[in-house]
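Ticket 4471: requesting a sanity check on a complex prediction with FFO. Repro inputs:
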Amino acid sequence: MDKKQQLRNDMRVLRKTLPQRKDQETAIHKHLISYLLDRNHKGRILSYLAVQDELDLEPVHQMCLQSGLSLAVPKVLDWKAGIMEFFEWPKDGVFNENRVGILEPRDTATVEPATGDIVLVPCLAIDKRGYRLGYGGGFYDRFLAKHPDLTTICPVFDKQFISRVPAEPYDQPIQFACLSSGLTSLNL
Ligand SMILES: Nc1nc2c(c(=O)[nH]1)N(C=O)[C@@H](CNc1ccc(C(=O)N[C@@H](CCC(=O)O)C(=O)O)cc1)CN2
Ligand SMILES: Nc1ncnc2c1ncn2[C@@H]1O[C@H](COP(=O)(O)OP(=O)(O)OP(=O)(O)O)[C@@H](O)[C@H]1O
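Returned structure tokens:
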């Protein structure tokens, strides 16, 4: 098994037994919400709907909807080619479950990302250079390569912030990690 796959397996196991998971999650929500409100962000938030033991961003979504911030989540368009796009949050609450159990908007419009939009990127692990480990589909790498002018933030549990993620030439580094201690700049 290659290094990346081994690390994926290890991080999936680790994610199941995180210490103070709920406390960390709550702290991360607070930091993200303050960041979005303090910056008076007017663009879109491109978030994700948690699956398995992923960090759940529900309170952040609630804040976006209450504050009138425009919120979108991904929908996989082509599993083989690793293509996803973002779709507006459905005000009618209608989602479909995709083949790996992730909820995706059913009927809403696709969004064309604009400069400065904020992407909250799910990950299994991230390092201080901003290299991230996902499930291996290359969905975010392809999406971010097409849209280099977005602000990227990985919300992560402390144990997911690791010393080194093996990086490939196509890996798109992430700009910030949001940990329970706050937002930290990566890629330095
Ligand atoms: N919440 C969330 N949404 C997301 C992503 C994500 O990482 N998290 N994605 C980020 O890319 C895209 C979907 N990509 C995914 C790719 C593989 C698996 C996954 O669980 N694969 C299983 C095999 C499951 C199966 O085939 O039945 C595995 O790897 O074991 C999940 C999401 C778009 N939406
Ligand atoms: N911009 C790209 N163009 C073509 N292929 C790409 C691109 N980015 C990634 N890939 C392909 O996607 C595959 C998976 O990449 P990687 O292992 O980095 O996924 P990941 O970042 O863990 O997953 P995800 O982004 O879905 O969460 C690689 O085999 C790679 O060849």
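Notes from triage: The longest helix spans residues 21-38. Leaving this open until the requester confirms.
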